[in-house]
Amino acid sequence: MSEDGIIIFRKGSGQNPVKMAIVGCGGMGCNTLRSIRVPDGVKTIAIGGNRQEIAGTRADVELVISQDDAMASAKSKPSRYASNDAEMELSYILKEYDMVFPVAGLGGNTGGWMVSLVGRAAKLAKTTPIALVTTPLNAEGREKRHRSTEQLEALRNWTSAIIFKNDQILKEVPNLPLEKAFRVMNKVVVAPIDELSGLDKGNFKDMRGMFRKSHIFRMDAAEWRGDNPTFAINEEFRRSDWLSLQVLEPKCAIFFIKGFGVNEGLAAEFAEDFAKSAKQEIPMLACLDDSKATKEIKVTAIIGL
Asked: Where are the alpha helices (DSSP H) in 177-289?
Protein backbone atom coordinates (compact mmCIF):
# COMPACT_ATOMS: atom_id res chain seq x y z
CA MET A 1 0.00 0.00 0.00
CA SER A 2 1.02 3.62 -0.39
CA GLU A 3 0.33 6.19 2.30
CA ASP A 4 1.39 9.84 2.26
CA GLY A 5 4.13 9.28 -0.29
CA ILE A 6 5.61 6.16 1.29
CA ILE A 7 5.24 2.56 0.12
CA ILE A 8 4.37 0.34 3.10
CA PHE A 9 4.14 -3.43 3.29
CA ARG A 10 4.48 -6.18 5.87
CA LYS A 11 7.22 -8.77 5.75
CA GLY A 12 5.95 -11.78 3.85
CA SER A 13 4.92 -15.16 5.18
CA GLY A 14 7.93 -16.76 3.48
CA GLN A 15 5.75 -18.82 1.13
CA ASN A 16 7.26 -17.18 -1.97
CA PRO A 17 10.57 -15.69 -0.78
CA VAL A 18 13.10 -13.88 -2.90
CA LYS A 19 16.10 -16.13 -3.65
CA MET A 20 19.31 -14.55 -2.33
CA ALA A 21 23.03 -15.27 -2.25
CA ILE A 22 25.98 -13.70 -0.42
CA VAL A 23 29.12 -13.50 -2.55
CA GLY A 24 32.26 -13.17 -0.43
CA CYS A 25 34.90 -11.42 -2.56
CA GLY A 26 38.60 -11.53 -1.68
CA GLY A 27 40.05 -11.56 1.83
CA MET A 28 37.48 -9.48 3.70
CA GLY A 29 34.51 -11.03 1.87
CA CYS A 30 35.67 -14.59 2.53
CA ASN A 31 36.48 -13.76 6.18
CA THR A 32 32.91 -12.50 6.50
CA LEU A 33 31.55 -15.84 5.27
CA ARG A 34 33.67 -17.61 7.90
CA SER A 35 32.46 -15.46 10.79
CA ILE A 36 28.72 -14.84 10.28
CA ARG A 37 25.51 -16.76 10.75
CA VAL A 38 23.99 -17.05 7.29
CA PRO A 39 20.22 -16.36 7.29
CA ASP A 40 17.98 -19.33 6.52
CA GLY A 41 17.47 -19.88 2.81
CA VAL A 42 20.39 -17.66 1.75
CA LYS A 43 23.14 -19.36 -0.27
CA THR A 44 26.84 -18.48 -0.16
CA ILE A 45 29.47 -18.10 -2.88
CA ALA A 46 33.17 -17.56 -2.14
CA ILE A 47 35.45 -15.91 -4.73
CA GLY A 48 39.18 -15.55 -4.16
CA GLY A 49 42.39 -15.04 -6.05
CA ASN A 50 43.65 -18.47 -4.91
CA ARG A 51 42.44 -21.61 -3.12
CA GLN A 52 43.87 -20.48 0.22
CA GLU A 53 41.75 -17.32 0.21
CA ILE A 54 38.47 -19.27 -0.06
CA ALA A 55 39.47 -22.18 2.18
CA GLY A 56 37.25 -22.74 5.22
CA THR A 57 34.37 -20.54 4.07
CA ARG A 58 32.00 -23.56 3.83
CA ALA A 59 30.43 -21.77 0.86
CA ASP A 60 27.92 -23.55 -1.39
CA VAL A 61 30.03 -22.51 -4.39
CA GLU A 62 33.77 -21.70 -4.47
CA LEU A 63 35.53 -19.98 -7.38
CA VAL A 64 39.10 -18.90 -8.01
CA ILE A 65 39.28 -15.78 -10.20
CA SER A 66 42.54 -14.03 -11.01
CA GLN A 67 43.23 -10.45 -10.03
CA ASP A 68 43.78 -9.64 -13.72
CA ASP A 69 40.30 -10.90 -14.68
CA ALA A 70 38.69 -9.03 -11.78
CA MET A 71 40.41 -5.76 -12.68
CA ALA A 72 39.67 -6.20 -16.39
CA SER A 73 35.96 -6.64 -15.62
CA ALA A 74 35.89 -3.60 -13.36
CA LYS A 75 37.52 -1.38 -15.97
CA SER A 76 35.77 -2.72 -19.09
CA LYS A 77 33.10 -0.74 -20.89
CA PRO A 78 29.38 -1.50 -20.41
CA SER A 79 28.26 -4.38 -22.61
CA ARG A 80 25.52 -6.98 -22.89
CA TYR A 81 28.20 -9.64 -23.23
CA ALA A 82 30.73 -11.13 -20.82
CA SER A 83 34.19 -9.60 -21.02
CA ASN A 84 35.95 -12.81 -19.90
CA ASP A 85 35.31 -16.47 -19.00
CA ALA A 86 35.08 -15.69 -15.27
CA GLU A 87 32.10 -13.37 -15.84
CA MET A 88 30.42 -15.96 -18.04
CA GLU A 89 30.88 -18.77 -15.52
CA LEU A 90 29.61 -16.66 -12.63
CA SER A 91 26.60 -15.39 -14.59
CA TYR A 92 25.39 -18.99 -15.04
CA ILE A 93 25.67 -19.54 -11.28
CA LEU A 94 23.80 -16.34 -10.43
CA LYS A 95 20.84 -17.03 -12.74
CA GLU A 96 18.98 -18.93 -10.04
CA TYR A 97 18.91 -15.93 -7.66
CA ASP A 98 16.74 -12.81 -7.58
CA MET A 99 19.20 -10.76 -5.51
CA VAL A 100 22.91 -11.17 -4.80
CA PHE A 101 25.12 -9.37 -2.28
CA PRO A 102 28.83 -9.14 -3.15
CA VAL A 103 30.73 -8.41 0.08
CA ALA A 104 34.24 -6.93 0.02
CA GLY A 105 36.68 -4.53 1.57
CA LEU A 106 37.61 -1.73 -0.82
CA GLY A 107 41.25 -0.79 -1.25
CA GLY A 108 42.79 -4.25 -1.60
CA ASN A 109 44.17 -5.86 -4.73
CA THR A 110 41.39 -8.39 -5.41
CA GLY A 111 38.11 -8.12 -3.50
CA GLY A 112 37.31 -4.52 -4.39
CA TRP A 113 37.69 -5.27 -8.11
CA MET A 114 35.74 -8.52 -7.83
CA VAL A 115 32.64 -6.62 -6.71
CA SER A 116 32.42 -5.08 -10.19
CA LEU A 117 32.89 -8.52 -11.77
CA VAL A 118 30.01 -9.87 -9.68
CA GLY A 119 27.90 -6.84 -10.62
CA ARG A 120 28.57 -7.38 -14.33
CA ALA A 121 27.82 -11.11 -14.04
CA ALA A 122 24.60 -10.34 -12.17
CA LYS A 123 23.49 -8.00 -14.94
CA LEU A 124 24.13 -10.73 -17.51
CA ALA A 125 22.07 -13.11 -15.37
CA LYS A 126 19.28 -10.49 -14.99
CA THR A 127 19.79 -10.63 -11.24
CA THR A 128 19.75 -7.63 -8.89
CA PRO A 129 23.13 -6.99 -7.20
CA ILE A 130 23.51 -4.90 -4.03
CA ALA A 131 27.14 -4.53 -2.96
CA LEU A 132 28.07 -4.43 0.74
CA VAL A 133 31.51 -2.84 1.04
CA THR A 134 33.81 -1.29 3.62
CA THR A 135 36.24 1.60 3.13
CA PRO A 136 39.83 1.47 4.45
CA LEU A 137 40.96 2.91 7.73
CA ASN A 138 42.59 6.33 7.40
CA ALA A 139 45.67 4.80 9.00
CA GLU A 140 46.01 2.29 6.15
CA GLY A 141 47.59 4.89 3.91
CA ARG A 142 46.97 7.06 0.87
CA GLU A 143 47.59 4.33 -1.71
CA LYS A 144 44.91 2.05 -0.30
CA ARG A 145 42.44 4.91 0.03
CA HIS A 146 43.14 5.94 -3.58
CA ARG A 147 42.56 2.35 -4.79
CA SER A 148 39.35 2.25 -2.75
CA THR A 149 38.09 5.36 -4.57
CA GLU A 150 38.95 3.79 -7.94
CA GLN A 151 37.10 0.59 -7.05
CA LEU A 152 34.06 2.50 -5.80
CA GLU A 153 33.89 4.50 -9.02
CA ALA A 154 34.14 1.29 -11.05
CA LEU A 155 31.39 -0.57 -9.21
CA ARG A 156 28.97 2.35 -9.61
CA ASN A 157 28.65 1.23 -13.25
CA TRP A 158 27.31 -2.18 -12.26
CA THR A 159 25.63 -2.07 -8.86
CA SER A 160 24.36 0.08 -6.05
CA ALA A 161 26.41 -0.23 -2.86
CA ILE A 162 25.80 0.08 0.86
CA ILE A 163 29.04 1.55 2.23
CA PHE A 164 30.39 1.05 5.75
CA LYS A 165 33.32 3.08 7.09
CA ASN A 166 35.89 0.99 8.97
CA ASP A 167 36.98 4.06 10.94
CA GLN A 168 33.46 4.29 12.32
CA ILE A 169 33.54 0.84 13.91
CA LEU A 170 36.72 1.81 15.80
CA LYS A 171 34.81 4.73 17.29
CA GLU A 172 32.01 2.38 18.35
CA VAL A 173 34.29 -0.24 19.95
CA PRO A 174 37.55 1.65 20.72
CA ASN A 175 38.80 -0.85 23.30
CA LEU A 176 38.58 -3.95 21.12
CA PRO A 177 41.69 -5.34 19.41
CA LEU A 178 41.65 -4.60 15.68
CA GLU A 179 41.00 -8.21 14.67
CA LYS A 180 37.94 -8.45 16.94
CA ALA A 181 36.71 -5.04 15.78
CA PHE A 182 36.79 -6.26 12.19
CA ARG A 183 34.76 -9.33 13.19
CA VAL A 184 32.14 -6.98 14.62
CA MET A 185 32.20 -5.04 11.35
CA ASN A 186 31.66 -8.26 9.38
CA LYS A 187 28.38 -8.76 11.22
CA VAL A 188 27.37 -5.13 10.70
CA VAL A 189 28.06 -5.34 6.96
CA VAL A 190 25.70 -8.28 6.40
CA ALA A 191 22.90 -6.81 8.53
CA PRO A 192 20.98 -5.69 5.39
CA ILE A 193 20.74 -9.33 4.32
CA ASP A 194 19.10 -10.24 7.64
CA GLU A 195 16.53 -7.51 7.03
CA LEU A 196 15.89 -8.50 3.41
CA SER A 197 15.85 -12.28 3.88
CA GLY A 198 12.33 -13.61 3.73
CA LEU A 199 11.23 -10.74 1.48
CA ASP A 200 8.26 -11.88 -0.55
CA LYS A 201 8.52 -11.76 -4.34
CA GLY A 202 5.30 -9.76 -4.42
CA ASN A 203 7.17 -6.82 -2.84
CA PHE A 204 10.48 -7.37 -4.59
CA LYS A 205 9.76 -4.97 -7.46
CA ASP A 206 9.22 -2.02 -5.09
CA MET A 207 12.36 -2.83 -3.08
CA ARG A 208 14.48 -3.27 -6.21
CA GLY A 209 13.16 0.01 -7.60
CA MET A 210 14.18 1.84 -4.44
CA PHE A 211 17.76 0.55 -4.65
CA ARG A 212 17.93 1.83 -8.23
CA LYS A 213 17.29 5.42 -7.16
CA SER A 214 20.86 5.90 -5.93
CA HIS A 215 24.29 4.35 -6.38
CA ILE A 216 25.49 4.94 -2.82
CA PHE A 217 23.66 3.95 0.37
CA ARG A 218 24.51 4.03 4.06
CA MET A 219 22.86 2.19 6.94
CA ASP A 220 22.24 2.53 10.66
CA ALA A 221 19.80 1.09 13.20
CA ALA A 222 18.20 2.52 16.32
CA GLU A 223 15.61 1.39 18.84
CA TRP A 224 13.42 3.03 21.46
CA ARG A 225 11.33 1.81 24.35
CA GLY A 226 8.93 4.51 25.47
CA ASP A 227 6.76 7.31 24.15
CA ASN A 228 7.26 9.06 20.80
CA PRO A 229 9.46 6.39 19.17
CA THR A 230 9.25 8.04 15.74
CA PHE A 231 10.73 11.29 17.06
CA ALA A 232 13.38 9.63 19.26
CA ILE A 233 14.65 7.26 16.55
CA ASN A 234 14.67 9.95 13.87
CA GLU A 235 16.75 12.14 16.20
CA GLU A 236 19.32 9.34 16.42
CA PHE A 237 19.40 9.06 12.64
CA ARG A 238 19.87 12.82 12.24
CA ARG A 239 22.95 12.69 14.50
CA SER A 240 24.26 9.38 13.12
CA ASP A 241 27.85 9.39 11.85
CA TRP A 242 27.03 6.20 9.93
CA LEU A 243 24.44 8.07 7.83
CA SER A 244 26.07 11.54 7.78
CA LEU A 245 22.73 13.27 7.25
CA GLN A 246 24.22 16.39 8.85
CA VAL A 247 26.21 16.98 5.66
CA LEU A 248 24.63 14.79 2.96
CA GLU A 249 21.15 15.07 1.45
CA PRO A 250 19.16 11.83 1.13
CA LYS A 251 17.77 10.82 -2.27
CA CYS A 252 15.61 7.95 -1.00
CA ALA A 253 15.05 5.93 2.18
CA ILE A 254 14.23 2.33 3.08
CA PHE A 255 13.07 1.52 6.62
CA PHE A 256 12.69 -1.86 8.30
CA ILE A 257 10.43 -1.29 11.31
CA LYS A 258 10.17 -4.04 13.93
CA GLY A 259 8.21 -4.29 17.14
CA PHE A 260 4.99 -5.47 18.68
CA GLY A 261 2.03 -3.62 17.21
CA VAL A 262 3.88 -1.70 14.48
CA ASN A 263 1.37 -0.59 11.87
CA GLU A 264 0.92 1.52 8.76
CA GLY A 265 0.05 4.61 10.76
CA LEU A 266 3.29 4.47 12.73
CA ALA A 267 5.28 3.94 9.51
CA ALA A 268 3.63 6.97 7.87
CA GLU A 269 4.33 9.07 10.97
CA PHE A 270 7.95 7.97 11.00
CA ALA A 271 8.37 8.80 7.31
CA GLU A 272 6.76 12.20 7.74
CA ASP A 273 9.16 13.05 10.55
CA PHE A 274 12.16 11.83 8.54
CA ALA A 275 11.06 13.93 5.55
CA LYS A 276 11.24 17.07 7.72
CA SER A 277 14.97 16.50 8.24
CA ALA A 278 15.45 15.80 4.53
CA LYS A 279 13.80 19.18 3.78
CA GLN A 280 12.47 17.76 0.52
CA GLU A 281 10.15 15.06 -0.73
CA ILE A 282 12.03 11.83 -1.35
CA PRO A 283 10.85 8.31 -2.27
CA MET A 284 10.48 6.13 0.84
CA LEU A 285 9.62 2.51 1.56
CA ALA A 286 8.84 0.83 4.88
CA CYS A 287 8.79 -2.90 5.62
CA LEU A 288 6.90 -3.76 8.82
CA ASP A 289 7.56 -6.79 11.03
CA ASP A 290 5.51 -7.42 14.17
CA SER A 291 6.29 -11.14 14.38
CA LYS A 292 8.25 -10.81 17.64
CA ALA A 293 6.69 -9.47 20.82
CA THR A 294 9.43 -6.97 21.67
CA LYS A 295 8.80 -4.02 23.98
CA GLU A 296 10.93 -1.65 21.95
CA ILE A 297 10.53 -0.36 18.40
CA LYS A 298 13.60 -0.97 16.24
CA VAL A 299 14.20 0.75 12.91
CA THR A 300 16.94 -0.07 10.43
CA ALA A 301 17.43 2.73 7.91
CA ILE A 302 19.13 2.31 4.53
CA ILE A 303 19.51 5.77 3.01
CA GLY A 304 20.42 6.56 -0.60
CA LEU A 305 22.77 9.54 -0.88
From this structure: 178-189, 191-196, 201-211, 229-239, 264-278
| Alpha-carbon torsion (258, 246, 185, 101), positive or negative | positive
pLDDT in tens, 211-268: 999 999 999 999 988 888 888 999 999 999 999 888 888 999 999 999 888 889 989 9
Q: Which residues contact 149 (CB under 8 A, 6 or more apart)?
A: none
**Is the per-residue pLDDT at 171 higher than 90?**
no
Q: Write out pLDDT tens, residues 102-129.
A: 999 999 888 999 999 999 999 999 999 9
C-alpha 297/C-alpha 241 separation (Å) is 21
**CA–CA gap between residue 254 and residue 26 (Å, rounded):** 28
Amino acid sitting at position 80: R
Beta pairing partners, 45: 23, 61
Helix (H, G, I), strand (E, B) or coil at 80: coil
pLDDT at 285 over 70: yes
- The rounded distance, in Å, linking the Cα atoms of 194 and 258 is 13
d(C-alpha 46, C-alpha 227), whole Å: 45
Cα pseudo-dihedral 37, 206, 301, 292, rounded to 10: -60
Structural domains in the chain, sorted by start: 2-13+216-304 (3.30.1330.20), 20-197 (3.40.50.1440)
